């Protein structure tokens, strides 16, 4: 190769190398091209990151909302969410001239399940109850848990009372079916209190309070009942809130009089004893005896002290009559059944007045036994061991679970003759109905008495069908304590 040729080759290579070295302008072009190639990928990456952040924020917001507004156990709306929803529903109903109903429920028999089988079983039972409540109402209705075993249901856009009754009956039926919890069958029931807007209240607080009052009235009637607030209000001559205040003022001023009447045996083997009842002087309600004002007592601060006073009063009169063979039946208020060591307390109080527990026949209402369930069995068993006799009021006219009844050691089953009229009507039918109850009571080892008897013709037939004792106007009316003498 000649020198000139080599020189030309070298110059050509040098020029080529020079073209490959980027200048500032070419370097910028390279960067732009590279960025444009990577732009879709980078844009997609940034968009995905933004969506991920937004999704996380939404999830966190939803989690915080659920935490603040939903019950962690049943996953139903909680009290806070319900309160806000009730206010919104009320405002919308006012603006649209619409109506709605509020249903207040709690469980009968839940506490014994919780105490007997543990809190885990109780929690599982509440979850199952919540599922049945949701399944029993319409899609637009609102179900919430207030706490414990209390639930509320908003029936929105309602004008038809038949729908409210149908839903209430369905709720009671579904909740009262047996549950399978922790490998065992358990059973509870429910009662329903109903308040309607706008007829029962103009504010959310009023509607809630009225539904609660209706629930209490439903429970007082027995298990598996529903009650409208208007039915509660119509029972009183004054408004319920004023009535409660009136009652408590009269308790403070001791406007309650113990009265007695004789319970007449229908066989020589039975002993005569007295029955004590307490009358509210100048009461603004139709039934001024204990049975009529007991719901007011239960909502007052005086329930325990008044319950003790009634038992002590009966013991005092027994001591005054100085007749060891005379007994006295006295109401045992539900509040006392909830007290610790109440059997020891009552035995001590009775003996301090010079009477004996064996002389006292403690009358417990069948609805109280239903509400307290196994707790009632436990307390009544303790009272029996102290020597007290037991009387079950409301037998035949109100229901009680057979399994629960089998655990009770009852001395007297009291059948109300007025209730017999409601169930059977004509005298002949009432006596047949009564005869069946007498046979059942005797089979359980209890004596059967009929109270509030006012029919002389019926009295003559009582002994023939096996009634053990009777009381009422046909035997003797109530007399104030100072006018009463031992039977």
TrEMBL record:
Pfam families: EAL, GGDEF
InterPro entries reported for this sequence: Biofilm_reg_signaling, EAL_dom, EAL_sf, GGDEF_dom, Nucleotide_cyclase, Rev_trsase/Diguanyl_cyclase
Molecular-function GO terms, alphabetical: catalytic activity
The name this protein goes by in its record: Diguanylate cyclase (GGDEF) domain-containing protein
Domain of life assignment: Bacteria
Naturally occurring in which organism (per UniProt): Sulfurivirga caldicuralii
Cofactor(s) the record lists: Mg(2+)
Database matches in PANTHER family: BIOFILM ARCHITECTURE MAINTENANCE PROTEIN MBAA, DIGUANYLATE CYCLASE DGCP
Domain EAL: 240-487
Domain GGDEF span(s) in chain numbering: 98-231
């Amino acid at each position: 190769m000649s020198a000139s040729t080599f020189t030309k080759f070298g110059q050509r290579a040098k020029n080529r190398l020079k073209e490959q070295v980027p200048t500032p302008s070419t370097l910028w072009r390279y960067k732009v091209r590279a960025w444009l190639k990577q732009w879709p990928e980078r844009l997609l990456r940034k968009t995905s990151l933004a969506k991920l952040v937004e999704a996380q924020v939404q999830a966190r917001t939803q989690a915080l909302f659920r935490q603040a507004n939903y019950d962690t156990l049943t996953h139903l709306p909680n009290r806070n969410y319900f309160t806000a929803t009730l206010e919104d529903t009320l405002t919308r109903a006012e603006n649209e001239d619409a109506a709605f109903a509020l249903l207040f429920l709690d469980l009968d028999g839940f506490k014994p399940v919780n105490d007997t089988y543990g809190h885990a079983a109780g929690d599982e039972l509440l979850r199952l109850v919540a599922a049945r409540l949701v399944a029993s109402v319409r899609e637009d209705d609102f179900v919430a848990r207030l706490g414990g075993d209390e639930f509320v249901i908003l029936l929105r856009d309602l004008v038809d009372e038949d729908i409210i009754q149908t839903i209430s009956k369905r709720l009671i039926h579904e909740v009262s079916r047996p549950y399978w919890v922790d490998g065992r069958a358990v059973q509870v029931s429910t009662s329903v209190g109903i308040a309607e807007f706008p007829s029962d209240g103009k504010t959310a607080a009023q509607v809630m309070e009225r539904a609660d009052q209706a629930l209490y009235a439903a429970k007082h009637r027995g298990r598996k009942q529903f009650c409208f607030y208007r039915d509660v209000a119509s029972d009183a001559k004054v408004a319920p809130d004023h009535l409660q205040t009136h009652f408590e003022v009269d308790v403070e001023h001791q406007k309650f009089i113990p009265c007695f009447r004789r319970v007449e045996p229908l066989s020589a083997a039975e002993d005569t004893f007295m029955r004590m009842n307490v009358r509210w002087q100048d009461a603004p309600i139709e039934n001024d005896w204990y049975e009529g004002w007991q719901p007011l007592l239960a909502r007052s601060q005086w329930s325990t002290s008044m319950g003790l006073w009634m038992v002590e009063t009966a013991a005092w009169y027994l001591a005054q009559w100085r007749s060891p063979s005379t007994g006295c039946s006295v109401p045992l208020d539900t509040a006392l059944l909830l007290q610790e060591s109440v059997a020891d307390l009552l035995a001590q109080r009775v003996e301090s007045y010079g009477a004996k527990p064996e002389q006292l026949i403690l009358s417990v209402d069948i609805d109280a036994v239903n509400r307290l369930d196994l707790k009632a069995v436990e307390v009544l068993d303790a009272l029996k061991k102290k020597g007290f006799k037991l009387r079950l009021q409301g037998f035949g006219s109100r229901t009680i679970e057979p399994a629960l009844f089998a655990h009770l050691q009852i001395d007297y089953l009291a059948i109300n003759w007025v209730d017999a009229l409601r169930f059977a009507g004509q005298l002949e039918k009432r006596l047949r109905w009564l005869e069946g109850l007498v046979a059942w009571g005797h089979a359980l080892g209890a004596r059967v008495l009929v109270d509030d008897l006012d029919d002389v013709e019926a009295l003559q037939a009582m002994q023939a069908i096996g009634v053990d004792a009777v009381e009422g106007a046909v035997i003797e009316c109530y007399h104030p304590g100072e006018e009463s003498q031992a039977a």
